Amino acid sequence: MATDDVSLTRRGFGGLGMAALAAATLGGVTKFGISSAHAAESGPIKIGILHSLSGTMAISETTLKDVMLMLIEEQNKKGGVLGRKLVPVVVDPASNWPLFAEKARGLLTSDKCAAVFGCWTSVSRKSVLPVFEELNGLLFYPVQYEGQECSRNVVYTGAAPNQQAIPAVDYLMKEDKVQRWVLAGTDYVYPRTTNQILEAYLKSKGVAASDIMINYTPFGHSDWQNIVAQIKQFGSAGKKTAVVSTINGDANVPFYKELGNQGIKATDIPVVAFSVGEEELAGMDTKPLVGHLAAWNYFMSVDTPANKAFIKKWHEFIKNPKRTTNDPMEAHYIGFNMWVKAVQKAGTTDTNAVIDALIGVSVPNLSGGYSTLMGNHHITKPVLIGEIQDDGQFNVVSRTPGLVVAQEWSPYVAETKDLIGDWRAPLSCGNFNVKTGKCGGASK
Amino acid sequence: MMRVSFATLAPPALVLGCAVLLVLGNVVPAASSPFHVPIFAVSLTGKYLAYAILALALDLVWGYVGILSLGHAAFFALGSYAMGMYLMREIGRRGVYGNATLPDFMVFLNWTKLPWYWYGFDHFAFATLMALVVPGLLALVFGFLAFRSRVSGVYLSIITQALTFALLLAFFRNNMGFGGNNGLTDFKDIAGFPLQADSTRNGLLLATALALALAFLLARFVVLSRLGKILIAVRDAESRTRFLGYRPESYKLFVFVLSAVIAGIGGALYVPQVGIINPSEFSPANSIEAVIWVAVGGRGTLTGAIIGAVLVNLGKTYFTSALPDFWLYALGGLFILTTLFLPRGLVRLFEAKPVAALSEVPATKARAA
Amino acid sequence: MRLVLFLIGLVLLPAFARAGDPSNAYSAFASGDYDAMAAAVTELAAAADPHAGAVIAALQAGRLYATEDGALLIRGDDGNYTDLLSGKPVAADEDTVKKIRMNNAVRRAVEAAEGGLQLFAADPATRRAAAETLFKSHDTAALSALTRARAKERDPSVAEAMAEAEAAAIVMSPDAPEAAKLHAVAVIRARGDLEASALLASIPSPTPAVAAAAHNGIVAIQRVLQLWDVAESVFYGLSLGSVLLLAAIGLAITFGVMGVINMAHGEMVMIGAYVTFVVQEIIRAHAPGLFGASVVIAVPLAFIVAGAIGIAIERGLIRFLYGRPLETLLATWGLSLVLQQAVRSIFGPTNRDVGTPSWMSGALPLGGLTITLNRLTIILFALAVFAALMALLRYTSLGLKMRAVTQNRAMAAAMGIRTPWIDALTFGLGSGVAGMAGVALSQIDNVSPNLGQGYIIDSFMVVVFGGVGNLWGTALGALLLGIVNKFLEPFAGAVLGKIAVLVLVILFIQRRPRGLFPLKGRAAEA
Fold it and tell me: How many domains are contained in chain C?
């Protein structure tokens, strides 16, 4: 049975087929590279939207794509920017990290986007970072993250750990007199870094190591029986216990369900989460969760005229009055408005000019104040602590009196405690060591 | 002796030819000329060719020996990690924390020294060797145990899936020292050549094309030799082959290890062109996609594997930009239609049906309804 | 505005803390200061203020409102407001009144207060619950009320709960005599659960005798609890195993009878979960009273819907791929992508809220075990499904035909069995069972388009481990894998535990290449 040469017994076909395929590949591949004929300074401005619309992250990211489309539409109604219309370019990187890098490259080289709004997980940001730095693009990153980064080509509109985690812990220590802490997280960089920071912070406040329990679970972990039992056990040593949860997205639903079923109420062992927002609560039965907390810089229930107007516009745009708004959406709102203001200030969409114009730009946020972009490419934010209500909304129970400036380099990690980031001249450095006076590392 | 025929030489020649054309298209015409090939296309093609190497490796074990490995991307990913570790060490002081020996992720995990399994990865040769040896070793151990116990068919497929899933979970752990969920990234240069430079990218494409061509020739050599005939015998009638005095386990093991090594090479070439290696490369879905590439192209033909890999990935790139909300329909539909209407793959499209069906179920035990 | 109220509250707080005047306590509710509110609740309850009960009930139900000048209103079912103190109806409009919310501190105060008030309720279950709450809050102020209530109590179980609560209050109060405290420690130790242990560990400034007694109590309780821990691991293992069983058993059927690797199996589970969601949405909109039965209604519906889709898949796709089981793998993988995207397009990519009916919520304490009701129901459900399937296979003619086709397809066809039809029905049955599994899984996991992906690998492991074509193998395999995983987890952590189970399966297959209960016979060689 001569099955080995079966592929090309028809030489003609084989040759032709291969040649045709080669041509198709060449053509197909170069097609993506054909530069658009648009000059950079006239014609519509392209805005890239790099959020997963399928795969595991679609749950969180699809709504961000929708809010960007809404913001672009609103801005176009006001006449666009510099008299030019804005055109959104939506791609789906499908929760696949190499595909994120590929799509980012496409947005910057083929589509020549003036700015890109995107990413959610730290991995996705880390995989596109080299692309943005190499091609001198501009990325607006709207999600709370672990810090330890300060790139010239990224504007971080999400919270750094000191804008979320530390105020939450302070609230629990003061209000609930918590003495024992469970730091439960999903096993990846954001929870690990946050827990490191929190552990150091708690110890600096006099909490003994035996009063801190740290636990990591894999993504999508759905069987919480053991761990919730362990939390219950840990919490029955006679001291008031709380759980600080950096559990990611999907795993929260079964975690909270198990908590409720094992009878742990918020009044016994409160859980404060950093990755649970209105969007996640919409997929849960919140009655057993009443009283558990979350720390964000924005809640949909914040009662300000700006927020009410935003929610109204959102519901009209998405044609669904039940859709929620959440913190990353506000981050995009702030980031987009900052970009518009910077472009108007610079008079051009050229990346270098816009990056220089961005620092110091101040726009209103949705919780009644202003947000300013600092030299470290992070924005100032208020910290709000909210308790879950049975309608899936949060009741704001505490608020920092002022705005908190981000500390992107953690003072609790030995290698970074002396670092600051400041992209204004003369420093122009993302990781400047104040002790040695040198700009270190490769973040240009 | 390998027959130096058109079928043997044409595909590698074409692959190399296309690669050279693309590189010339990038280097020679000016940037504004319509013939200019953007560097982005060069890297993308390099990525496709690296995938094609994986597909080739899979076709070797599946098409010719009948082992449906649903975990082959594990070997690819291990090769990627080996090269990735070298690239991480090459960053040296230029990392975010400026530490000469420790990669960034170890610094923020507060580790003070390099774990033993990272020693030696500051040498390019060692890393390349590891990219071959580690997947090969894993395949050797796994295959030895599996084939000796005569695990076959669907059981074998499922335990290969278990293998890759276990590796996925293991590499996701931050304590393992491989970067956890963030993986290894932020690479600067390879063997002294900066990764961002166009010349390096062109070079990498050529290297990948060369590797693919060589792998193809190697696979053809194996398949056309006497060994190849025994492999096909093992695939189609294992018991009979055993009774004739051959030891199918040894042959299967040999090809399995060879295939793993080839996949490792593909992985090693993949990572400098993509810029990041992350545990999700181990996910079972990646391995299944590799199987789809081979199925679409035509399994048991080697050429088909290459064609399938390039075409399907091209389709994915296109559809995720053109139809971001619906591309999964297109991709899923492609798989369904291929299995229904192109069961033996694109390459065999105009072929007459061979006498004995090239089914995965050996002819003597066909379960036709 | 809030800041102003807060300052006012701050100023007023010392005033009415000293005065203890109820009318000032009421003004704390409108102040927005949670600490003041909590103090006010405690004060009102202690003073046995007549309106205290009404305030607390309204707070808990979210019906307490404040007008701009600080008057408190209760909102009735009809949307009308009545003034709290006078009881007269007040015309108020939604925009001018502000809902009074609680935080955890207030909630705790309310719970404790409620406990104290309910000690004298008519219903013994309410009295018992009140005593339980007071035990947990160990509020020393409730001591006198507890002593009085216990003296009046006739029901022995309620009396016991009250005795424990009394003991808790005594042990925490600084001026109780030592003998009373020692007696209290003994009572608490006799209770013997985790809360008792916690309480004994937190006695403030104990005398040496009391400290020693408490320490012994803790040690004794912990020893007993450790034994219960083993039982707990077994329970968790059983529940994980039953989840695996439900997810895998549909696959075992299609695999066993048809040799089809169905990669869209996870999506059948997902469809079952979404059917539950739709059923609940319809019930919520049209017949809210039926919510408790929603899961029961969803089960047969999910079976029918998933089963119908399964038959459609078989007729439309798989049938053309006979004799090519591995190609079926690829086609069904493509199908799973299409199904996921379809569900994503129809229902959106976010998680959907599937609620748990009240009879499945909460837990049953059994000695030191907490048996969560939803998991218990799932275990029983899985066993029922398994039993039904075994009965189907053994006692019905369809089952007979299915078994014949599994053992020797050619012969079965020769005997006149219409194998294509059996295949379609088998696939439908497997998919239908997967749909029912989805109903169960919707109670413990997210309902999202990605639901199926989380279970497909585990389902395959279970089927292969147990032996293809054998339902007993699947059942035993699922339970074994679940228990092993749960016993490993406390030592190795969740991730390593899972990896260890995978490695064990791989090694096990090397030893027994056909699984736990392989199908025997020449025709099974595949």
Answer: 3
Which tops the pLDDT comparison, B109 or B315?
B315
> Which positions 497-526 of C are in contact with A (Cβ < 8 Å)?
498
- For chain A positions 175-194, those within 8 Å of chain C (CB to CB) are 175-176, 187
> C127 and C51 share a domain?
no
Instruction: Say whether both C352 and C431 belong to one domain.
Output: yes
Q: Is A76 exposed, middle or buried (0-12, 13-18, 19+ CB in 10 A)?
A: middle
Domain residues for the domain of C513 are: 251-362+411-525
Contacts with A237 from chain C: Cβ below 8 Å = 198, 201-202
Residues C173 and C320 occupy one common structural domain: no
Instruction: Answer whether residue C11 is part of any domain.
Output: no
Under-50 pLDDT residues of chain C: 9, 11-20, 526
Q: Which of C80, C105, C130 is a domain's end point? A: C105
Say if residue C330 is in the same domain as residue C455. yes
Mean residue pLDDT across chain A: 85
Tell whether C165 and C81 lie within a shared domain: no
Does the structure show a pLDDT above 90 at A49? Answer: yes
Global pTM value: 0.83
Rounded to whole angstroms, the Cα distance separating A411 from A54 reads 37
Q: Do B154 and C526 touch (CB under 8 A)?
A: yes
Residue C299, in any domain of the structure: yes
Indicate whether C374 belongs to any domain: no
Residues of chain A above pLDDT 90, percent: 50
- One domain for residues C28 and C169: no
Q: Do C103 and A236 touch (CB under 8 A)?
A: no
Identity of the residue in C261, C317, C511 whose CB atom sits nearest the CB atom of B336: C317
* Phi, psi of A113, rounded to the nearest 5 degrees: -70, 140
Residue C193 has which token pair?
């659960």
User: Of C206, C221, C240, at which residue does a domain stop?
Assistant: C206
Each as own residue / partner, the long-range contacts of residues C44-48 (CB below 8 Å, 24 or more positions apart, any chain) are: C44/C113, C45/C112, C45/C113, C45/C114, C45/C116, C45/C117, C46/C116, C46/C141, C47/C20, C47/C22
Q: Who among A56, A59, A282 is closest to C353 (CB)?
A: A282
**Among residues 16-55 of chain C, which lie with CB inside 8 Å of chain A?**
34
pLDDT attached to residue C7: 54
pLDDT digits (tens, 9 = 90+) for B121-159: 888 999 999 999 999 999 999 999 889 888 887 788 888
Q: Is residue C189 part of a domain?
A: yes
> What's the ipTM?
0.82
Report the pLDDT value the prediction gives residue A302, as an integer from 0 to 100: 92
Six-digit token pair at A324?
A: 């929620």
- The rounded distance, in Å, linking the Cα atoms of C236 and C370 is 10
Residue-level pLDDT at A27: 54
Q: Do C375 and A225 touch (CB under 8 A)?
A: yes
